[in-house]
Design brief:
alpha+beta; about 25% helix; globular; five-stranded antiparallel sheet; about 140 residues; HIT family, subunit A; single chain
Length: about 140
């Protein structure tokens, strides 16, 4: 859908030559953003020089945009490439609100991903954040 220009705003925030910036669809945390490498690579060590060079500034810029869009205190940045359905490089940039419950601090924030449909951030809110991020990244 992204390649055809048919993806919703939350699933096509920004496209760079190397990365797609998207809002996670299965989270209860508004602003949970994923930087998806546009080609398959199973590990960070496999990034090209251009992919690696663009990643740092993109993480910084998405973090700044999330601070504006969500008023988060900071962001977490995580990369595993271990999910059975997504065994490729993708970087999570996760807003850490000041009032995040202790039960979700640090790596426990992943308890807010893969949640049931009724707990997920509404699509309208994901699109709202997407448009704020798009403006911040342009």
């Amino acid at each position: 859908m992204r390649d055809r220009g048919e993806a919703p705003d939350w699933d096509a925030i920004v496209r760079t030559p190397a990365w797609d910036v998207v809002h996670a669809y299965d989270t209860s945390l508004a602003g949970w953003t994923v930087l998806v490498l546009r080609r398959h690579a199973g590990a960070v060590a496999e990034l090209t020089d251009d992919e690696a060079a663009s990643l740092g500034p993109l993480i910084r810029d998405v973090s700044r945009g999330l601070a504006s869009a969500t008023r988060c205190a900071k962001t977490y940045v995580v990369q595993f490439a271990e999910h059975p359905q997504h065994p490729h490089v993708h970087v999570h940039v996760i807003p850490r609100p000041a009032d995040l419950p202790e039960s979700a601090i640090g790596p426990r924030v992943f308890s807010l991903l893969g949640v049931p449909v009724e707990q997920r951030v509404p699509e309208a809110r994901m699109n709202e954040i997407a448009l704020c991020l798009r403006d911040a990244l342009s």
